Amino acid sequence: MALFAAARRAAVSAAPLLLRASASSGANRGAALLRPLAAVAARPQPRAMPFSSAPATRPSSDAELLSVIESEIKYAEDCDDHDRVEEIPENFPFKITDEKGTNAVTLKRTYHGEQIEIVAHMPSLVTGDEPDHDRDDGEKGEEGDSDDDAGEKPPQSSVPLTVTITKGDGPILEFTCTAYPDEVLIDSLSVSQPSGDDEADLIAYEGPDFNDLDENLQRAFHKYLELRGISPLTTNFLHEYMINKDSREYLLWLRKMKDYFKQ
Protein backbone atom coordinates (compact mmCIF):
# COMPACT_ATOMS: atom_id res chain seq x y z
CA MET A 1 0.00 0.00 0.00
CA ALA A 2 2.89 2.45 0.79
CA LEU A 3 4.55 1.66 -2.55
CA PHE A 4 1.32 2.42 -4.41
CA ALA A 5 0.94 5.76 -2.56
CA ALA A 6 4.50 6.77 -3.50
CA ALA A 7 3.82 6.00 -7.16
CA ARG A 8 0.59 8.00 -6.94
CA ARG A 9 2.41 11.05 -5.52
CA ALA A 10 5.06 10.79 -8.25
CA ALA A 11 2.38 10.69 -10.91
CA VAL A 12 0.61 13.76 -9.50
CA SER A 13 3.84 15.76 -9.25
CA ALA A 14 4.92 14.72 -12.74
CA ALA A 15 1.64 15.60 -14.39
CA PRO A 16 2.13 19.46 -14.50
CA LEU A 17 5.64 19.08 -15.93
CA LEU A 18 4.46 16.75 -18.67
CA LEU A 19 1.53 19.01 -19.47
CA ARG A 20 3.82 22.02 -19.82
CA ALA A 21 6.20 20.03 -22.00
CA SER A 22 3.41 18.91 -24.28
CA ALA A 23 2.02 22.43 -24.57
CA SER A 24 5.38 23.90 -25.64
CA SER A 25 5.91 21.24 -28.25
CA GLY A 26 2.31 21.20 -29.43
CA ALA A 27 2.24 17.40 -29.29
CA ASN A 28 -1.33 16.25 -28.57
CA ARG A 29 -0.23 12.64 -28.36
CA GLY A 30 1.61 13.22 -25.05
CA ALA A 31 -1.49 14.84 -23.52
CA ALA A 32 -3.56 11.86 -24.56
CA LEU A 33 -1.15 9.52 -22.84
CA LEU A 34 -1.23 11.68 -19.71
CA ARG A 35 -5.02 11.53 -19.19
CA PRO A 36 -5.14 7.87 -18.07
CA LEU A 37 -2.23 8.47 -15.68
CA ALA A 38 -3.89 11.48 -14.11
CA ALA A 39 -7.17 9.58 -13.80
CA VAL A 40 -5.42 6.77 -11.95
CA ALA A 41 -3.80 9.26 -9.58
CA ALA A 42 -7.11 10.96 -8.80
CA ARG A 43 -9.17 7.76 -8.40
CA PRO A 44 -10.03 6.96 -4.71
CA GLN A 45 -8.13 3.91 -3.56
CA PRO A 46 -9.81 1.06 -1.63
CA ARG A 47 -9.15 0.82 2.08
CA ALA A 48 -7.30 -2.17 3.45
CA MET A 49 -9.75 -4.77 4.85
CA PRO A 50 -9.19 -5.47 8.58
CA PHE A 51 -10.31 -9.11 8.28
CA SER A 52 -9.33 -11.77 5.83
CA SER A 53 -11.95 -13.89 4.08
CA ALA A 54 -9.55 -16.84 3.96
CA PRO A 55 -10.60 -19.78 6.20
CA ALA A 56 -9.01 -19.61 9.66
CA THR A 57 -6.65 -22.36 10.63
CA ARG A 58 -7.36 -24.36 13.79
CA PRO A 59 -5.41 -23.00 16.80
CA SER A 60 -2.60 -25.26 17.94
CA SER A 61 -4.14 -25.36 21.43
CA ASP A 62 -7.29 -26.98 19.97
CA ALA A 63 -5.22 -29.63 18.23
CA GLU A 64 -3.35 -30.35 21.45
CA LEU A 65 -6.59 -30.61 23.42
CA LEU A 66 -8.06 -32.95 20.79
CA SER A 67 -5.02 -35.19 21.09
CA VAL A 68 -5.42 -35.39 24.88
CA ILE A 69 -9.14 -36.17 24.54
CA GLU A 70 -8.40 -38.98 22.08
CA SER A 71 -5.85 -40.44 24.50
CA GLU A 72 -8.40 -40.33 27.31
CA ILE A 73 -10.99 -42.04 25.08
CA LYS A 74 -8.53 -44.82 24.35
CA TYR A 75 -7.87 -45.26 28.06
CA ALA A 76 -11.61 -45.32 28.86
CA GLU A 77 -12.29 -47.86 26.11
CA ASP A 78 -9.61 -50.16 27.52
CA CYS A 79 -11.40 -50.28 30.88
CA ASP A 80 -13.43 -53.42 31.48
CA ASP A 81 -16.61 -51.80 32.82
CA HIS A 82 -17.64 -49.24 30.20
CA ASP A 83 -19.50 -51.81 28.07
CA ARG A 84 -20.53 -54.23 30.78
CA VAL A 85 -24.16 -55.33 30.73
CA GLU A 86 -25.47 -55.80 34.25
CA GLU A 87 -27.49 -58.95 34.81
CA ILE A 88 -30.69 -58.03 36.62
CA PRO A 89 -31.36 -60.36 39.55
CA GLU A 90 -34.17 -62.82 38.94
CA ASN A 91 -36.35 -61.53 41.76
CA PHE A 92 -35.54 -57.84 41.25
CA PRO A 93 -38.85 -56.03 41.93
CA PHE A 94 -38.35 -52.86 39.84
CA LYS A 95 -38.50 -51.94 36.18
CA ILE A 96 -35.45 -49.85 35.18
CA THR A 97 -35.52 -46.87 32.80
CA ASP A 98 -32.06 -45.68 31.77
CA GLU A 99 -31.69 -43.03 29.07
CA LYS A 100 -28.29 -42.52 27.47
CA GLY A 101 -26.77 -39.13 28.21
CA THR A 102 -28.56 -38.64 31.55
CA ASN A 103 -27.12 -38.63 35.05
CA ALA A 104 -29.81 -40.77 36.70
CA VAL A 105 -31.90 -43.92 36.28
CA THR A 106 -35.50 -44.45 37.33
CA LEU A 107 -36.92 -47.58 38.96
CA LYS A 108 -40.67 -48.13 39.25
CA ARG A 109 -43.01 -50.73 40.72
CA THR A 110 -46.50 -51.12 42.10
CA TYR A 111 -46.97 -52.46 45.63
CA HIS A 112 -50.50 -53.05 47.02
CA GLY A 113 -51.90 -50.11 45.05
CA GLU A 114 -48.97 -47.83 45.81
CA GLN A 115 -46.85 -46.34 43.04
CA ILE A 116 -43.19 -46.47 44.05
CA GLU A 117 -40.52 -44.62 42.14
CA ILE A 118 -36.78 -44.48 42.85
CA VAL A 119 -34.48 -42.01 41.12
CA ALA A 120 -30.86 -43.10 41.51
CA HIS A 121 -28.26 -40.42 40.78
CA MET A 122 -24.60 -40.70 39.80
CA PRO A 123 -22.52 -42.35 42.53
CA SER A 124 -20.05 -40.73 44.84
CA LEU A 125 -17.06 -42.98 44.21
CA VAL A 126 -14.34 -43.95 46.63
CA THR A 127 -11.33 -45.48 44.90
CA GLY A 128 -7.92 -46.73 45.90
CA ASP A 129 -6.57 -43.29 44.97
CA GLU A 130 -8.15 -41.69 48.00
CA PRO A 131 -5.62 -40.17 50.45
CA ASP A 132 -4.69 -42.39 53.35
CA HIS A 133 -5.98 -40.80 56.53
CA ASP A 134 -4.56 -43.49 58.79
CA ARG A 135 -2.15 -42.10 61.34
CA ASP A 136 1.18 -43.76 61.91
CA ASP A 137 2.36 -44.86 65.34
CA GLY A 138 3.77 -41.48 66.23
CA GLU A 139 0.46 -39.74 65.54
CA LYS A 140 -1.87 -42.06 67.48
CA GLY A 141 -3.43 -40.98 70.70
CA GLU A 142 -2.01 -41.77 74.09
CA GLU A 143 -4.07 -44.96 74.24
CA GLY A 144 -2.81 -46.03 70.79
CA ASP A 145 -6.33 -46.17 69.34
CA SER A 146 -6.65 -45.83 65.57
CA ASP A 147 -9.69 -44.44 63.73
CA ASP A 148 -10.94 -47.96 63.00
CA ASP A 149 -10.62 -48.88 66.67
CA ALA A 150 -12.77 -45.88 67.51
CA GLY A 151 -15.60 -47.41 65.49
CA GLU A 152 -15.38 -45.25 62.36
CA LYS A 153 -16.07 -47.08 59.10
CA PRO A 154 -13.74 -46.66 56.14
CA PRO A 155 -15.24 -44.52 53.35
CA GLN A 156 -17.43 -46.34 50.83
CA SER A 157 -18.90 -45.48 47.47
CA SER A 158 -22.54 -44.46 47.69
CA VAL A 159 -25.53 -43.69 45.46
CA PRO A 160 -27.98 -40.84 46.23
CA LEU A 161 -31.60 -41.96 46.01
CA THR A 162 -34.92 -40.14 45.93
CA VAL A 163 -37.86 -42.41 46.76
CA THR A 164 -41.43 -41.25 46.20
CA ILE A 165 -44.51 -43.26 47.18
CA THR A 166 -48.03 -42.26 46.16
CA LYS A 167 -51.55 -43.69 46.46
CA GLY A 168 -53.61 -42.46 43.53
CA ASP A 169 -54.12 -38.70 43.73
CA GLY A 170 -53.34 -38.59 47.44
CA PRO A 171 -50.36 -37.14 49.27
CA ILE A 172 -46.78 -37.85 48.19
CA LEU A 173 -44.35 -39.41 50.63
CA GLU A 174 -40.75 -38.64 49.68
CA PHE A 175 -37.50 -40.00 51.14
CA THR A 176 -34.00 -38.80 50.33
CA CYS A 177 -31.53 -41.61 50.99
CA THR A 178 -27.91 -42.57 50.60
CA ALA A 179 -27.44 -46.15 49.42
CA TYR A 180 -24.26 -48.02 50.29
CA PRO A 181 -23.54 -51.53 48.99
CA ASP A 182 -25.25 -53.26 51.93
CA GLU A 183 -27.41 -50.63 53.59
CA VAL A 184 -29.61 -47.59 53.05
CA LEU A 185 -29.44 -44.48 55.19
CA ILE A 186 -32.47 -42.18 55.28
CA ASP A 187 -31.38 -38.56 55.20
CA SER A 188 -34.81 -36.91 55.28
CA LEU A 189 -38.47 -37.54 54.55
CA SER A 190 -41.50 -35.40 53.87
CA VAL A 191 -45.18 -35.78 53.01
CA SER A 192 -46.94 -33.27 50.80
CA GLN A 193 -50.16 -32.71 48.91
CA PRO A 194 -49.37 -30.98 45.59
CA SER A 195 -51.39 -27.79 45.58
CA GLY A 196 -50.39 -26.36 42.22
CA ASP A 197 -49.07 -23.33 44.07
CA ASP A 198 -45.31 -23.39 43.58
CA GLU A 199 -44.70 -20.73 46.22
CA ALA A 200 -46.73 -22.57 48.84
CA ASP A 201 -45.02 -25.85 48.01
CA LEU A 202 -41.64 -24.17 48.34
CA ILE A 203 -42.19 -23.00 51.91
CA ALA A 204 -44.06 -26.10 53.11
CA TYR A 205 -42.71 -27.65 56.31
CA GLU A 206 -40.76 -30.80 55.42
CA GLY A 207 -40.35 -32.30 58.86
CA PRO A 208 -37.38 -32.56 61.24
CA ASP A 209 -33.98 -34.01 60.52
CA PHE A 210 -34.38 -37.76 60.31
CA ASN A 211 -31.65 -38.42 62.88
CA ASP A 212 -33.57 -36.30 65.39
CA LEU A 213 -36.52 -38.69 65.31
CA ASP A 214 -37.08 -41.27 68.00
CA GLU A 215 -35.00 -44.40 67.28
CA ASN A 216 -38.09 -46.60 67.20
CA LEU A 217 -39.62 -44.33 64.57
CA GLN A 218 -36.41 -44.42 62.55
CA ARG A 219 -36.38 -48.22 62.55
CA ALA A 220 -40.05 -48.29 61.55
CA PHE A 221 -39.39 -46.11 58.50
CA HIS A 222 -36.43 -48.29 57.46
CA LYS A 223 -38.70 -51.35 57.71
CA TYR A 224 -41.37 -49.53 55.68
CA LEU A 225 -38.89 -48.96 52.80
CA GLU A 226 -37.51 -52.46 52.97
CA LEU A 227 -40.98 -53.98 52.54
CA ARG A 228 -41.40 -51.89 49.38
CA GLY A 229 -38.21 -53.18 47.79
CA ILE A 230 -35.59 -50.71 49.00
CA SER A 231 -33.51 -53.53 50.41
CA PRO A 232 -29.85 -54.74 50.26
CA LEU A 233 -30.77 -56.73 47.13
CA THR A 234 -31.80 -53.51 45.39
CA THR A 235 -28.98 -51.33 46.69
CA ASN A 236 -26.26 -53.87 45.88
CA PHE A 237 -27.46 -54.04 42.28
CA LEU A 238 -27.89 -50.27 42.03
CA HIS A 239 -24.40 -49.70 43.38
CA GLU A 240 -22.77 -51.73 40.61
CA TYR A 241 -25.19 -50.48 37.95
CA MET A 242 -24.55 -46.80 38.67
CA ILE A 243 -20.76 -47.24 38.79
CA ASN A 244 -20.89 -48.82 35.33
CA LYS A 245 -23.27 -46.13 34.07
CA ASP A 246 -20.84 -43.49 35.28
CA SER A 247 -18.13 -45.09 33.10
CA ARG A 248 -20.44 -45.29 30.07
CA GLU A 249 -21.59 -41.69 30.38
CA TYR A 250 -18.03 -40.44 30.82
CA LEU A 251 -16.97 -42.17 27.60
CA LEU A 252 -20.00 -40.75 25.77
CA TRP A 253 -19.15 -37.27 27.06
CA LEU A 254 -15.56 -37.60 25.85
CA ARG A 255 -16.73 -38.61 22.38
CA LYS A 256 -19.01 -35.57 22.22
CA MET A 257 -16.05 -33.36 23.16
CA LYS A 258 -13.99 -34.98 20.41
CA ASP A 259 -16.69 -34.35 17.81
CA TYR A 260 -16.88 -30.69 18.85
CA PHE A 261 -13.16 -30.00 18.61
CA LYS A 262 -12.84 -31.86 15.30
CA GLN A 263 -15.15 -29.37 13.61
UniProtKB/TrEMBL annotation:
<dbReference type="InterPro" id="IPR036561">
    <property type="entry name" value="MAM33_sf"/>
</dbReference>
<feature type="compositionally biased region" description="Basic and acidic residues">
    <location>
        <begin position="130"/>
        <end position="143"/>
    </location>
</feature>
<dbReference type="InterPro" id="IPR003428">
    <property type="entry name" value="MAM33"/>
</dbReference>
<dbReference type="Pfam" id="PF02330">
    <property type="entry name" value="MAM33"/>
</dbReference>
<feature type="compositionally biased region" description="Polar residues">
    <location>
        <begin position="155"/>
        <end position="164"/>
    </location>
</feature>
<protein>
    <recommendedName>
        <fullName>Mitochondrial glycoprotein</fullName>
    </recommendedName>
</protein>
<feature type="region of interest" description="Disordered">
    <location>
        <begin position="121"/>
        <end position="164"/>
    </location>
</feature>
